[in-house]
Every structure is written in C-alpha cells, then in structure tokens.
C-alpha cells in the first residue's frame, strides 16, 4: 500500500508546476480501463474544441445562411446530398454548417460558464469552509436551497429575466448556466476545505504564527484546488445539456446570434412526424458525443486521480502448498481488490 | 420501542422545522427574481393590447403599487394560504392551473420513476457485481449514453421510429381527442380515471400515449441511478463487514446478495429523492417534446407570454414541492436507517 506520488518530488517547482505534476503523475501511471476512458474522452473533447476553433474554415456556409452567394435560396428539407452533406432544415439552412458553428457556441458558453461559476463558487466555498460559524451556516442554507431547485427551471428563469437586459445570447446563457453550478463548486470546495482545515500541517502553520489569509492561499487552496478538475469537467458536460435544454425551450442563443444544437432540435421535433430525420438526428448526435466525451474525460480523471477508486492489483495470497482443493480458491479472486 | 418512536418523532419534527427557513429562502429567492426583472409585468404581458387605465387598474389589483416590503409580505402570506393569484394573460386562478396540469405532470413523473427505479437498481447491481467485466463496461456505457442524451433528442428518436416510422405509438398528447372528451374525470389522472370508469379502450389509449414520454423521462433518471447504485455497491463491497463475512467463510453469493446488496440499497431512497429536482427539469423538456399538457408545458407557455403571475405561481409551487419531498425522503430514510437520526 505504498502511495507512489507526493513527497518524493526532488525539487520543488512553482505552485502551478506542482499541481501539474500532482495531476499528471497518476495519469501517467494509470492502467487499463481508466486510461482508455481518459484518452477516448480527451480525443472526443479535443476534436470538438478543434472544430470550434476552425469553424469558419470547416463550415461550407454561414450558420444563418439560407441562400447561395448568388441569392438563390436553398431548397428546404433537402435530404443529405453532395451540396448539403447533412441536408437542409425547414428554414433552408445547412444542417452541417449549423453543427460546425454550433460547436463554437457550445465551447464558448461552457468555458464562460465554468469560469463564472468557479470565480464565485471557489472563493465563497473557501471562505465559508475556513471561517465556519454563522456565515458558513447561512451560506450552506442558501446554496442548499439553490441546489435543491430544479436546475433547468433556475436557468430558464434567469435567462428569461436577462434576455431583455443583455444583448449577447452567449453571455446570457453562460450566466444562467453558471448560477446552476455555483452551489456544486461551493459544496465540493467547502467540504474539502473543512477536512483540510483540520490537517496537522495547517495546525502547524497556525502554530508558527501564519496569518489566516496566508494559510488559506498557501496551504488550503493548493489542496482544495485538486478536486476542481474533475468537478469542472463533469459540470462542463452537464452544462452542455443545460444549454441545449435552454435552446430547446427558446431561451438560449437566439437564431440570429449563433447556431445552437438545442434550438435545432426544437425545430426538428415538428419534422419527426413527417419522417424527416436529418434535421434532428445530426444535432442530437453532436450533443451526445460532446457530452459523452466530457463525461468520459471527467470519469477518467476521477478514476485516475481519486486513489480510493483506483483499482489496485493485489497478488492472490499463496499458502505454502498445504490444502489445495479448488473449492476454497474462489475466495481470492483477482477481481476483488482493496486492503487485505 | 417507545424510545425509538419518540426519537423518530423528534427527528421528523426537527426536520419539518428546518424546512421552514428553506422554504422561506426559496420563496424570497423567487420573489427577488421576479421583482428585479426590468419593466412592469402587467405592461409586459398586456402592453399595447389594452388602455393605460386598464393597466393601472390591473396593477393596483395585483398590489404592484404597494411598497416592496408590503408586496413581499403579501406574497408570503398568499403562498401559505395557497392563493397564487390570477394569471395575467388568460385570467385563470393559478391554483386551478396547478391542480389541472399538475395531475398530468404527476402521472408522467410517477410512471417515469417506476421505470427508472426498476431499471436503474437492477442494472446498477448487475454492473457493480460484475465489476470490470464486459457486462460492467456495457452497463456503464449505457449509463453514460443515457445521461448524455437530452430527453428531447430521445423523444425525437422515439417519435421518428415508433411514431412516424412504425406507427406503433402516438407521438404527442395525453389521449386521443375522443377519449379526451368522453372520459369522466374524477382524479384527472387519466390512467386512474379510466380504471375507475372501467373503460378499457380508454385505458389502452391513455397507456399508449404514456409509454413514450414516461420511458424517455425514465431513461434519463435510469442513467443516474445506475451510476449511483453501482458506485454504492462497490463501496459496500469494500466494507469491513463484507471482509469479515468473507473471512468467516460465508459463500461469495451470500456475501453479495445478503450482506452487500441490502446495505447498498439503503441510500438509494435518498438518491431517488434527490432525483426529483432533476426529474422536474426533465419533465419540462419531456412535456414540451411530447406536447404533454403538464405544468412544465404551461410554464413555458407563460414564460413566452411574459405572464409573471403564472410564472411566479408555478415556480413557487415547484420550490415548495422540492422542499417537501426532501423532508419526506429524510423521514423515510430515518425510518429505514436508524443511524440517520443522530
């Protein structure tokens, strides 16, 4: 049960470097399924990020373009063909182009949403967990109340209220989504802070006269921040779904502001009855693949970074050849892991 | 025995008392949200359609000309007397909307929950038991896929395949028009109504309408439950008492089925309770997809029409329901697992 990481790092690099090593070490060591899951997740997510970055070069048409440069309108509800790889919608827009542009919207919104919710959830969670007392209790109550609320309802109402104030659909959606996820970061960070606060090294720092501010930024933060990558990735996956849900209900990105997969699916529901499959199938696959990619990435990171879940190969106990009747060997199957 | 019941009662009581500030926080939150909204709700809903004078009268009738703290007090007392006001756009009492459309939502959510619990627990136990085998990997992938698929995409596929393609199931609505008008309503839960009326053709029609939406919504929760039950079983299987049972020579199947499963399932009650918030979010999307005349569908309609009273009433209702469900779940949990009542 020797822990292979930590403590034996030869030279001490900067904070970021240390964090990077702490995260990358177990990844390099990971074996088997978690490793596969991690790489598949990284590949899918990476592909969509690339698509988002190079959208203008990949997409043959604009996201709201419904006619050729010569002013000739695209036929509507055209099945997939050479001109329109994935067909056209009821509004004569190109399904393939909208998916490519949509990737850009999703990535933009999710990055903003994760940043916003981290910017609030992380410091508030740290302070709440470290200070404790009535402040902590009040914050926990408020966050629990927010957390208990149906997330989509919260997001819709915020988006609904902001839609008149903010011109940018991306910003509105990102704020609406981040409100949903702040309680989750708060919870994780606060609980982690509380457990770290009781650690001997914090005690020691305090005994040596370190000021609370120093303790929080130097010792507690560095420990707590480790739980962020997993939560952030899984939340990113979830926020894609929330964004699509918002778009589906008409409260995400407006069609004039950008392409959004949830909105496309909403328009496609009416097509289903007529047997028109391409307008809904492809945006749907796009959502599923990006969410799956991010989830696999998060799950893989979790399996790899969380030592409690990391399966360890334990050598089956070999008795000096005394009783060796196959009946009893069933108890030390290789699959059963954990402390022995 | 006596001490046990008293402690349970004390726990239930303290939990109920704790629910009050929770409800108050949520209510203030809803109130705040609806009031920070720019513009005037009455004008937003009816603007341009009626005269200035009517607008003023409407505003006064709703108490919008009062100071904000009076409005807040009115709102809170209205909620506790179940008086949510009249909607601005279609002039119906919000309570009536909640009761009518709520029945549709309840029916949908109930059957979705039945599907989710059965499938989720079963698959979770199987995958957890067979950890790291191909079956486990398949089960986990299924869980991830189901989670990653938005309900409206699942609904779209269902409508495409079972509706338009095979023509097996109706793609939208709660019942065909014929049943809609002829079935006698006693509970507004159509399945129950059809059974009470003894009308089997209506029951078949209603169930056919229910299958797709309930399965769609149910699968969403199935994925979550599967993951939770699986992880839970894995943790239970690492428990000291499982180790102890093995050490005592208890056979492996007995260890798993008698010792681990039971304990792995205790927190499932809490999990199912926690899923209700997710379920309601899913219900809004499912109802919109299948044109199911539930609360979520109605909420979206009010949102689109900028009907603040309607929106506020339905959201308030959701908030209160969420808190009450959490109280009930905690209570059930304390009843099952004595460790909870510290």
Question: Explain this structure to me?
Answer:
Chain A: It is a multi-pass membrane protein. Chain A: Its main location: membrane. Chain A: Pfam families: BPD_transp_1, OppC_N. The complex is a heterodimer of chains A (340) and B (342). By secondary structure, chain A is mainly α. Helices cover 64% and strands 0% of the residues of chain A. The longest helix of chain A has 37 residues. The N terminus and C terminus of chain A are likely disordered. Chain B is mainly α and 342 residues long. Chain B has 2 domains: 124 residues, no CATH class; 208 residues, MetI-like fold (Orthogonal Bundle), CATH 1.10.3720.10. Chain B contains 15 helices and no strands. The two termini of chain B are 17 Å apart. The relative contact order of chain B is 0.15. Classes of the chains: A mainly alpha (340), B mainly alpha (342). At the A-B interface, α5, α6, α10, α11 and α12 of A face α1, α6, α7, α13 and α14 of B.
Produce the secondary structure layout.
The complex is a heterodimer of chains A (340) and B (342).
Chain A (H helix, E strand, L loop, with lengths): L14 H15 L2 H22 L1 H4 L36 H37 L1 H16 L2 H12 L6 H29 L2 H8 L4 H13 L3 H21 L12 H12 L5 H28 L35
Helix pairs in contact in A: 2-4, 2-12, 4-5, 4-7, 4-10, 4-12, 5-7, 6-7, 7-9, 7-10, 8-9, 10-11, 10-12, 11-12
Chain B lengths: L1 H35 L4 H6 L5 H10 L6 H13 L13 H36 L4 H15 L2 H15 L11 H6 L7 H8 L2 H38 L2 H8 L4 H14 L2 H23 L4 H10 L3 H29 L6
List its traits.
heterodimer; A: 340 residues; mainly alpha; MetI-like fold; 12 helices; 0% strand; elongated; disordered C terminus; B: 342 residues; 2 domains; 78% helix
Number of strands of chain B: 0
The helicity of chain B comes to over 70%
Largest contact between chains: A-B, 53 and 55 residues
CATH structural class of the largest domain in chain B:
Mainly Alpha
Shape of chain A: elongated
General form of chain B:
globular
**Helix/strand-derived class of chain A?**
mainly alpha
User: Secondary-structure element sequence of chain A?
Assistant: HHHHHHHHHHHH
Query: Rg of chain A from C-alpha positions?
Result: 25 Å
Which residue ranges of chain A are poorly predicted, with pLDDT under 50 across at least 5 consecutive positions? 1-9, 322-340
Instruction: Give average pLDDT of chain A, whole number.
Output: 78
